[in-house]
Request: fold
Amino acid sequence: MGTRLPLFPEQASTISVEVDHLLYYLMAVSIFFTLLIFGAILYFAIRYRRKSDTEIPHSVHTGFALEIIWSVIPFGLTMIMFGWGASIFFRERRPPDNSMQVYVVAKQWMWKLQHLEGQREINELHIPINRPVELIMTSEDVIHSFFVPDFRTKQDVVPGRYETTWFEATKPGKYHLFCAEYCGTKHSGMIGWIYAMEPQNYQQWLAGGPSGTMVEAGAKLFEDLACVNCHHADGSGRGPSLVGVFGSTVKLSGGGTVKADEAYIRESILNPAAKVVEGYMPDMPVFQGLVTEENVVQLIEYVKSLTPRPAPNAPTRTAALPSTAVSTPSNR
Ligand code: CUA
Reply:
């Protein structure tokens, strides 16, 4: 920390300037009306004070124009707040398609981060600048909140579900990461740093990491946990083929469908009987307690990687029929 006492955090992400402009607007409106209202109270209290005990106020007529003006103007000002805020909110909720993804698992009292390339970090996150970074976040225990003031990013991290947020850093530097949700004794120590780097430095940093991507870690788990014994890629196993499942709409036994997103894959690993795929028996073992949240996200990345694509030298199959695809996890 330098000697200066900044009123605002640094503007180090693409959205921070916009968030600040909205904040300035909110503050300007608030200050203006605070002064106007308190000024009017003071003025009227003096101007229309009772001057003698016998004085009786005469009746006043409401000014219709005045009523309209002081209803319509505040309405317009608050609708600007609503529209402007909603527009920033929607953009903050939707990661751009070209985002790079990082998985975050929070626990009492640390942040664990995994890059798709395989790098794992604790309380530190290295990212390139000028590239949107999407965080897919969950918690092992209680609610935490991922807060980077310099990026104007704050997102609660909730056990049992995946929350996403994204940001795009604009300046290289080292930025504070906080937990912004009281999560127990050492909540205040649940802090870290985001290192925003020039893209070439980030590539260097990546190259210095361990070999083995998240997909590879997930593939290994898929074998070690014997998932591979039932989930054959050609659909011939006791469990459904997982090829092309991610992002698809899955038909459930007993009717209904579900979108195969991260949350559905996670639930199907931890509590498989919750949503059984049409045509299959609910006989998959429960993996709750056997795999960590970090294992689960590795498995999710592996499932995501199982896209129906023709194997070399194989005839082209239709992508619409995942169960006939030939890329099998067992022959990796
Ligand atoms: Cu985690 Cu507060």
